[in-house]
Design a protein that fits this description.
By secondary structure, the protein is an alpha/beta fold. Helices cover 38% and strands 22% of the residues. The structure holds glycinamide ribonucleotide (GAR).
Amino acid sequence: MSNSRICIFASGNGTNAEAIFKHFENHPTIHVTLVLSNNPNAAVLERAKKFGIESGVFTKSEFSESDDVVKRLLAHQITHIVLAGFLWLIPKKLISAYSGKMINIHPALLPKFGGKGMYGMRVHEAVKQAGETETGITIHEVNEQYDKGRIVFQTSCVVLSSDTPEQVASKIHNLEHQHYPRVIEQWVKASTNP
Ligand code: GAR
């Protein structure tokens, strides 16, 4: 199999990104070579530095109204994009440049609790508000609509009536760290020509 080069997009803390860095650290054919963020203060940038991975930031207009980001990705020979807590809608030109080569993780069982404005703690608060007895994670390909692309993987966990939204968040993070890296590996292999 030819080598794959992943770029991670993240807006915040980056615990998922770090789990992914670790998983692919010594991988023979799949490498995380770039991290991009819309947030210059995102902790994910420090995490990338610790792993010796190049990182950068972009503004809203660079991202949504120019070809800058696509050009940067192509200059780095990026083959796949992994969203890990990235909050902006992906513009059409980026979707078409990486059609079938962009994946996201959502901290709920889509189609429930998805869509614009549904991210991070807001999702877990909505899950509790609705009185759900289970929640989970969804890993899906990215298209022009928030949280609507082809579902690649889902798994669930129990929500106890005594769980706070923070406790739900912690269960979800554990599931994410356990599954996202290996699901990415399978998906990259399946979407790469031999
Ligand atoms: C994760 O729980 C991820 O599923 C969620 O943001 C968190 C980022 O955590 N993504 C969304 O809500 C996207 N709609 P992290 O920065 O610690 O990886």
